[in-house]
User: Fold this.
Amino acid sequence: MTPSLSRTGTKFRTACERVRNDGERIALVPTMGALHEGHLALIRFARERADRVFVSIFVNPTQFGPTEDFEQYPRDIEGDLRLCQEAEVDRVFAPSVREMYSDDDLTRVRVAGLTEHLCGAGRPGHFEGVATVVAKLFGLAGPCTAVFGRKDYQQLKVIERMGRDLMLPVEVVGCPTVRESDGLALSSRNRYLSDEDRERVVVIPEALSAAVRAFERGERRAGVLSTPVAEAMAVAGLTPEYVTIADADQLHPLSDDTQIEERALLAVAARVGATRLIDNVVLGEDPAPIEDDEG
Amino acid sequence: MTPSLSRTGTKFRTACERVRNDGERIALVPTMGALHEGHLALIRFARERADRVFVSIFVNPTQFGPTEDFEQYPRDIEGDLRLCQEAEVDRVFAPSVREMYSDDDLTRVRVAGLTEHLCGAGRPGHFEGVATVVAKLFGLAGPCTAVFGRKDYQQLKVIERMGRDLMLPVEVVGCPTVRESDGLALSSRNRYLSDEDRERVVVIPEALSAAVRAFERGERRAGVLSTPVAEAMAVAGLTPEYVTIADADQLHPLSDDTQIEERALLAVAARVGATRLIDNVVLGEDPAPIEDDEG
Assistant:
């Protein structure tokens, strides 16, 4: 069945209220569209946690920097609706920019601390844009579960904190990263890659997997775990933006000589050509992106 | 009957949900306590708009500057609860600071533009603190009407905009300023005034009333309306912080030679001794604070 479609905030809010009044729980999956198998995993993850799955599709201008790819970001609402139908999504919320940001919109939500490092360092204003638009979506949706991918780990942590700090009635949950068969994390931006670059970027999951295996063998020195990741990416022709080991909750970077205790985030961002890709594993928690044949 | 008391956000949220599930509407009156006749007017105003009136009492640390009177701000929870009982308030929410700001709270809400002038200029961070704590209260309360005094006109506008921009299910309404018989706007800070200063500060409503009458007689030049207000306050021994005519919605100041069209905000802040008082009228909309005996 075709999912119902809300184009305005008012109609989306009313639809959410109606569902709750019927005693049903909502799981919201906020997306920027250009849906792929990773989003379908979020939708299945959401389905297990609620009676109704609502997907929002909105390319949020305030989270793109002035030199970033807002205009070029892939948009395919027809394809997205078809995928949502196949995935049995109950409702799609696809508002216009004007609908989410009125002409005299003035309010921004900022999560300090968590947004200073990692992607926040290279993308000033990005997480303020994310926190603001997600606060709006939560304001409209009301009590629900909201599902985000762990591929965007820092985003997930920022949104968890924002929802909790603003006391919004939303349970934020993270869904494990979905990967191609060669380990590459699914991303709407993968479609930018040339065939040659697509082959190159497999170094990211390979290097993360090597770090996971080193951690499993007992290596605990942050620098010894992270340095080979940066080197491998550079050798493969990528331009690393950061390769950082950080506290998995507070996201503050750990110096190279830190001995990791139980768990730590290993997060990377790199450019290949004009495309920027990110990936991460939580050492001590996540499996290696690529299974070890010998394992 | 003694009003019910919630001390934690979780319990307050649950109480609000229960009332709504019974089909009753809630009006929320956020306060910093030290309740006076002005708050009782807000409570009566709220009563006309809902089935249940809930009052929050919370002296919000993030809206006080480092040199301001957070520690000294009057606190009288026993007296407040007695007044709430007399006013037939249904529930009081009186959380601790820790309850509203967890140890690792990181999120702030900022309303740009509206907060640059008037009180925002002299109190950096003040309205960010206000917008943040009110967003939290709205997040906890859920769908309701929220009542604020027009005495804090800029605050009212900031909160209206914040609620609308973040798409929170809250209707924000402003209640007319309540005044003493001599015209002084009620404020918890009036209790700081010495007898001598109390006599002096009547110049504020007198000067605002003179401006309203000049406007009613057809004077439209912003500078001609505002200058006598500043002069009268200075002559009376007050230290004006600002006397500003501003757009009543966007709050940007109008230059002295502006011809006011339909309406404009005339807002003042002044110090007398260590006490800072504010007041305002919307020219073309509000009556004079002091009735004209000849009128």
